[in-house]
Structures are given as C-alpha cells and as structure tokens.
Description:
Elements: E1 6-7, H1 14-21, H2 36-49, E2 53-58, E3 63-68, E4 91-96, H3 106-114, E5 119-125, E6 131-138, E7 146-149, E8 152-158, H4 160-164, H5 168-185, E9 195-203, H6 209-225, E10 228-237, H7 249-262, E11 266-269, H8 275-285, E12 288-291, H9 292-303, H10 307-321, E13 333-334, E14 346-347, H11 348-383, E15 388-393, H12 399-407, E16 424-429, E17 435-440, H13 450-455, H14 457-465, E18 468-474, H15 480-493, E19 501-506, H16 513-526, E20 530-532, H17 541-551, E21 557-564, H18 569-577, E22 579-585, E23 589-596, H19 598-601, E24 618-619
Parallel strand pairs: 1-3, 4-5, 9-10, 9-11, 11-12, 15-17, 15-18, 18-19, 19-20
Antiparallel strand pairs: 2-3, 2-4, 5-6, 6-8, 7-8, 13-14, 16-17, 21-23, 21-24, 22-23
Amino acid sequence: xxxxxxxxxxxxxxxxxxxxxxxxxxxxxxxxxxxxxxxxxxxxxxxxxxxxxxxxxxxxxxxxxxxxxxxxxxxxxxxxxxxxxxxxxxxxxxxxxxxxxxxxxxxxxxxxxxxxxxxxxxxxxxxxxxxxxxxxxxxxxxxxxxxxxxxxxxxxxxxxxxxxxxxxxxxxxxxxxxxxxxxxxxxxxxxxxxxxxxxxxxxxxxxxxxxxxxxxxxxxxxxxxxxxxxxxxxxxxxxxxxxxxxxxxxxxxxxxxxxxxxxxxxxxxxxxxxxxxxxxxxxxxxxxxxxxxxxxxxxxxxxxxxxxxxxxxxxxxxxxxxxxxxxxxxxxxxxxxxxxxxxxxxxxxxxxxxxxxxxxxxxxxxxxxxxxxxxxxxxxxxxxxxxxxxxxxxxxxxxxxxxxxxxxxxxxxxxxxxxxxxxxxxxxxxxxxxxxxxxxxxxxxxxxxxxxxxxxxxxxxxxxxxxxxxxxxxxxxxxxxxxxxxxxxxxxxxxxxxxxxxxxxxxxxxxxxxxxxxxxxxxxxxxxxxxxxxxxxxxxxxxxxxxxxxxxxxxxxxxxxxxxxxxxxxxxxxxxxxxxxxxxxxxxxxxxxxxxxxxxxxxxxxxxxxxxxxxxxxxx
Length: 620
C-alpha cells in the first residue's frame, strides 16, 4: 500500500505523486549518505512543481517520510522515532532548493538542533544546471572540504557522484560520540532553563520612531523583570494593525523562521492582542505568543505577597483569560442522563468558562469586602483628622525607596519595573510635628492594562481619598516627559487632578554635576511647585517634608471651647472631626480641649476661649 505524501500537495498531478511515493521503496544502505537515484528523483520533481521537497532517512538507509512545501520553505515535522536525548535521532533530512542556491540557510541549520538531526542536506542546481549538494552538521570540524558557520559545519558542494562515495556517515558517527560525551559531562538535571523571546511591535501611521523605541525598551525591561532573555526586536510598519494576525500573515511566517533560527521559546507583542490574533499567530508560528498585558499580569502574579494583592491579580488574570479560552467543542463534551438529555451536553470549554465566571464573582465579593474595610479605616482617620499622603508615579521611579527614606519602612526596592506591588501605609512625622499617614501605591505604566485598573480599584481609592499626592518622577530617565504624561492621564481618569499634587523629581544624584545646576533651575521655572530630591542619598528630603506640610489642608492648633448644652451637637462634631484632648461636663457648659484645623473649628468660633489663662490656644 503506497505511503501518503505530506505537506502542500494541492494541485499536484497524480503521476508526480506516484513518483514521490516510489521514494518509500528506495534504500541508501548503512554506509551511503544518499544515492544518485534519490537525488535525481526529488530534484526533477521539485524543479517541475517549483516547490521544496524533503525526505527523512534513518540510519538503516530507509526513507521514512516525504513532504512537499512551497517555493521557499518546507515543513519539517516531528520525528516519531526519537532516541535518547544523549544521542542524535538517527535521522538525516535531505531537501531541495528549486531554482535557487543549494547553500544551507540559517533556518536549515537551526533544524539540526530543533529536531536533533544527524545532518541536514540541501540540493540545488549549479551554473551548468547540474545538482549540487551541501551538508550541515553540528560541531567545529576542520575536515577538508568543510566550512564552519556558527555552531555548525557545512560540507560541500558535492556532485551526485561525490556525495555517494563520501565519508559523511562516518563523520555523523564521530559527531554523535562527541555529542554524547559532552551531554554526560554537563548534565542538565532539574535546572530551570531561562525562556528566550523575540519582541514584536507595530509602528502605526502616527507613531514616531522615538515612541516605538521607548515602548520596546520598556517591554524589554518588563521581560527582564519576568526573567525572560530578549534575543531580538522587530518592528513592523503598518497603517493599522492587521485584524487577523496584528503584523500580517507574511510577516508572521517570517517571524516563525526567525524564531526557529534564534531558538526562541516565545514571541512577546507590545500591544494587547485579541483572542483571534493570539490564536492565528500561534497557528502560523507554532510557538507560544504573549502580549504586553499578559506579561505585566505575570509579573504582578510573581510580586503579589498580601492576600489583597493576590486577589486583585487573580481577578485581572481571569478577566483577561475568559475571552481567550479555547477548546475542542463537542469532542470534550459532558453527556447528560435521562430523556431529553442524550447527545452532546455541556462542553468542557463551557464548564471552564462557567467556573471562571463564578470565580470572578467570588473575587469581586472578596475585594468589595476589602474596599469596605479600607473605607472604615479612612473614616477612622478622618475622625482623628490624620492627613493622608499618597506616593504615586511611574514604575521604577523610586517610590519604595522614598517611602523607606521617609519612614524606615524596610520594603523591597529594586531597579526593576514593578519591584513592589502591594501597597504599604506608614506613619510620617512632618516638620511641624503633625502626624500623617503616607501610602505607597502600585506603579503606573504606559499602556496599562484596563484589567489592572479595574482589579486594583480598592487600592487606587487610597489615591482618590488622600489629602496630598506626591507624583514621583525619575529625572534621569530619557523618557521622563512621556512618563509624566502617562501618570497625569491616569490621575485625570481617577478624577484627582484638583487635589494638591507635589511633583517630586527623584534621582538627581544620577545627573552630572554640570547638568544638575542648569537643568534643575530650568525645571524649577517650568514646575514651580516641585521638589528635587535623591531618595537614595537623602538630598532634598527636608525640603520635601516642608512642601508636604504647606500643601496639607489646615494646620492643626490646640483650642479650648466652652459649649453650652443648647449647642451640644458641636461636641459630636468635634468628636468626629478633631482629636479630643480633654473634656469636662460642668453645670452651665461643656469645656473641651481639642487639636483642630481651621475648617473644623469655624462653627464653634463664638465659644472659643481667647484668654490664655483659661486654657489658651497653642500650635501643635
């Protein structure tokens, strides 16, 4: 029974397919790399159909697979008869280059490692229209008639007669012994291999070259934070992203070959991809695809430590995953029982979606409880008139370092994006001795996933309810202005732009001394309500504390009041909005001493004691 020819056989005549099927009856023997008969047959058919043809030959000389590709590529499928990982598969691949040079490409050579082949050979036509053959293998051999290319050795060109009587099979046997010895000398064990990635971006019509470079640089930093090694970056110019594949089908195929050559494990795209784009790209390239959102969510999942942080990250991940679930439809169905329930029931995909939706509902309830708890804490702080300061800013601008400097919080501070995720609140003593609370918030980033904004609503409410915002800016970053714009846009979306915002330019210690004087001077003129500090060295911290005190609403003073019983509601007012120091219920009135700000004390001004001898008023 004739074997099937794999690959792109659409439109081929039956006579040509029958010729290719004859290959399964041919044999090269143990000592011959390939025979003249096999070379002549595949070269002849390949030139007629103008498509590449590949054959797999095992160590016994038997052809075990035949495939047809297109004009420039042929798919090399997985080999079923793999042997030990310490040895080669015992398979060599011979394929044609119709109408082109026989010299092996980088894509050809990369297949040696990806499929663990004994060797790979390519057949083309020389100037005299005669077949010539090149053979590629692993190693660094100095054999005559060979050339090194990276980690590979290329032998050739051979004529048909020359390759028939070559010693290539002996070289394969020697290479395998060296390979086996090398693997034994460096056992892999359970060592986790670092993922290797190619970064991909689309430069749209209105995007500048600087914007794309900045965005890719940030994506590279995100990959480094996620412990992924970046091998290559590619930018595709398009008026708008392709609806089906984001970068276009042709570019996706080109990217697949590039990934094969570089031995990349995944492709990371700079924008959020639709479920259809993810699915189509994985089908074309054959490797894992993730987008910017998925990468950020992975980093957040690594960094979350508190229960609240873990809940928020899980909610964001599930909201991202839900529309991207794929399955096999009726193949994975759950059958019902009883009359009317025969046949395909609820599919596995539907079960997964239902479970995810239920988990999302549960997480929202848990986060709502967290939100209510935070609301109670905020109400308690308001009753005590404790001002709240929130540190916000672009990721890796130095927020955690500043919190450590101001409060000795001792939280993690690294030179990485999203080094800390969970918000931290600490007590801060201001220059006028007023107590305050200062909170570090999650870092902002360009193209921040909307899933994160929704999931971190409870955390971001700390920013909304705070009295003063400290917008931390990395003054040494080349993209400082665009980072400031990203943060200001998100603050505007949160509706907090009318609050007192102190712009804190951090990392001035990274500026050159000659630049610091002139640059800081020009920035002071442009941002008059700003402070220039180094959270690492402590420079400018006192000025920052003074600026915070000036921007906090109402300076606290100590006052004593004698409130008539007819106005007893003012006592409740003070208990809710001021700090009560002393309270005495006398025959005619209630005497109360409190720490209070200007706004809170206004309704009781007529009952304030002005004589210092009777209690007086002093600043605290």
